[in-house]
Design goal:
This protein is mostly helical. The chain has helices at residues 3-25, 27-33, 39-62, 67-86, 88-91, 96-117, 121-124. It is 80% helix and 0% strand.
């Protein structure tokens, strides 16, 4: 496995782990922000689904050498950036821990994607020639 792919995997998985910790710590705050009777259940299911899909995409790209997964991760990241930009005023009302983890994980994901698309990672994602 090329060094850029290892860097991608390490950063992407660490960002995912930090996001999981942040979701657990900020769970009560997230539930309080959603005016629904079953908000806790809905948020819990959504978090589990998002984290499972994220891990599956990271695994498919890093270990499975799936080029499409790398592009899907990039598209999800760009959507996340747009969402963060649009919700910036609301983000500023959150706790400093939540803001800090959002900034750190976003930077880590950006770095992970940089490694996934540069250097010796390029040939890792090329189809095998027979």
């Amino acid at each position: 496995m090329p060094s850029n792919v290892r860097s991608f995997l390490g950063l992407a998985l660490l960002a995912l782990a930090i996001s999981i910790v942040a979701a657990v710590i900020g769970f009560d705050e997230a539930v309080a922000m959603v005016p629904m009777p079953n908000a806790a259940t809905v948020i819990m299911i959504a978090d589990v689904v998002v984290f499972a899909i994220s891990f599956a995409l990271i695994a498919a790209a890093g270990w499975g050498r799936q080029n499409w997964a790398r592009w899907v991760i990039l598209i999800f990241f760009l959507v996340e950036l747009a969402s963060l930009a649009m919700s910036f005023p609301k983000l500023m009302t959150m706790s400093s821990f939540q803001i800090g983890t959002a900034v750190i994980t976003t930077l880590m994901k950006a770095a992970a994607l940089f490694f996934a698309f540069t250097g010796n990672a390029k040939e890792w994602f090329q189809p095998k020639r027979v």
